[in-house]
User: What shape does this take?
Amino acid sequence: MMKEFKAQLIILMFLVSLLAKVNIICPVLAQSQPLISPGENKDQQLFNVTLIVTDWEEKNLLQGLNVSIYDLNGSLITSSFSNKEGQIDLILESGKYIVLVFSDSRIVGSRSINVIGTSKFNVRTYSYNLNVTCINWVGKPLPNVLVLIYEPTEYYTNNSLISDEVKGRLVKNAKTDENGIALFNSLWNGTYKVVVNSGRSIGEKTINLTESDQVTITCNITPLTLRVVSSSVREKPLSNAIVLLQHSSEPISFRDVTDRNGYVRFDNVYVGNYTVFINWMDREIFSGTVRVEEETLTVKCPVFEVSFRTIDFLGNPLPYSQVIVRRMIGAGRFSQILENLTDEGGLITLLLPSGIYEFSFSNGIFSAKRSINVNRNYSEIVQCNIDLNTWLILTLISIPLLILSLLMERKRIRSYLEFKRYQNMLMKLEAMYNSGLVEYKIYRKLREEYETKLMKIGGRRVR
Assistant: This one.
């Protein structure tokens, strides 16, 4: 407390030495003093005096500041607080005075006045405006982040508020607008620490404010676009891959899924080292450390292109063949992960993580199988042969059908021969009756018998 008092006494002596070359004693701030009459010269005139307390640029009126009036001998004449219009109305004798403005125990403004009549005086304080522009690591504005202004503690007494992050008193705070700008009005001159916060401290700067100023703070935060591709030369994008970013030293993580072009986007990623985990087709295909400080990163994963062209045993393409892919999950155990069709030319290209796979191809009576250890790009022409199981099933089905067909054909032939025999017998009977070799009674009986047989085995013959 004594040290602070001595520092203020030195400031007062310096100010007065410039104006009147005399010493001034620091005022008692929280106490308003009545007007002290001159006493020695009762004929001296009294005048209404208005003091208007403003910032340095005289654009803003400041209220609630202690304003003290001293004569040139350093004696306190009066003190009061500025009202909401920044004014103090006084009655002073004619003469010269020194005006000091205090904020708490700190001198924030001063001037000399010469009262020769009713007057108004502007008292400028060391109050300035500060514009803080926050940009991310790649130079783009950071909207909606919190900017805090801290002041060193030596300006304050024992009951000041100390921040846990910065040794100083929190003076003001504001959020940035859409252009990344936070505006602060009426800051006293002095040294400040400007801290930008978005969940944690992402940038800071120490400034010495001696005039209205604007500063730019580059924050250690950036938007990140991560592109996940295969390790093939053509770098095929991997869609629907789950991406997890885990900060290497802090409990910070980001998680999302890639789009159809293999991109995943994160806003406001803290600059630093991250471990990246990528899961695709129900298995982890990448884990590694990356340094996040650029806007775009590409991660190549051990995923390869596997191409097949299906043909029959004569070399003709088998269009729209069914392809089933199974991945080895243990000794002799496979799990189906994919089912697809070849195109009209019998072609198919698949993206697969490294591992052992079994491929099954089928098209009608044709089929084939392949077992491949996928650790590079791979292509093959697959000749599909007639499936033995299918052939055996067809044979077992066709033999009974053939026997049944032969039996039915035999019965049909026998019926046809019997029909022809009765038809010939009926024709002979007709010829014999017409020649008079058979009596009508016998003719009629035999004819009815033959026609009945014909009706049974194939229908009546129309004459």
Remarks:
- Residues 224-301 form a domain with the Immunoglobulin-like fold (CATH 2.60.40.10).
